[in-house]
# Entry
Amino acid sequence: MTVHRVAVLVLDGVTPLDLAIPAQVFARRPDTPYRLTLCALSGQVATTSGFGLVVDAGLDQVRSADTVIVPGFEPPLRPPPQAVLDVLAEAHDRGRRVVSICTGAFALAAAGVLDGLHATTHWQYVDDLERRFPAVAVDRDVLYVDEGDVLTSAGVCCGIDLCLHIVRRDLGAVTANQMARGLVAAPHRDGGQAQYVPAPVAGTDDTSLARTRAWALERVDQPLTIGELARHARMSQRSFMRRFTEETGTTPLQWLVSARVGVARELLETTDHSIDQVARECGLGSAANLRLHFRRVLHTTPTAYRNTFTRRPPAETPVAKSPGAVVRPAPGPLVSQPARSG
# Structure
């Protein structure tokens, strides 16, 4: 695999968790092409937690990167230095992938990177982002937004979802799911899920639906109805629907479709089963139904997806996105496209 350089641009007042997420996901591993560098305008950077960071690399490493990630920082309404805005605008102009986590979206917006695009940020700051940058179409109720070469995530832990989405887009579902298991993170949450649920989220005890979701995942190849799921959870259908949405931010049927597409992706990457067989094994029934959901969710076909992620020449380049996210054509997966030089 050709090396793919990832620069994490650390701004003064960085949120440590927002920084740790890409540092962990894109850390050097023998089976991934990512080479990560922390970059900053100066060598000393303050954090929101009261301790300082020493960052060795400067903005020149941002200029040579293939992907640039800006973690959240505070206060987000404080404009970053002009040199930072210039390097972000330059990266975008050169077609590099530019990503923000949480309030990092304010830096991208200030650099003009988000003009005319959809974007999101932490739910506490969506009003500020919308007021300060009217040229940005702010999506309030999503985990992340994929606009091709520009991606933004909502608050804090949504950065995990976005970074795993990037890995999935670059390297396929198998690699992303393996990484998620190592992080003890959910393997896939759609970008269109709600980032803020006003009711408290239940834990994995007897009141949670986690066991029912796990039960359903073991049976995705079977027809599953709301009634069957509710009976397993020992709830009325009405209570089950309400609780499921409170816990996941999506409906049971939407969740099931997403899970089945995820299973289909792994089967396409790891087996030579026919498209009809994959459709049956993931619970989508027919090849036509599988193609329909691949087009809707991933904007590609099952055959094109398999061609790409089994390291054969792709029939067409997939651009994976999640429901609720706006996507524009992006660079192809890393397995089939060399990283661009700086």
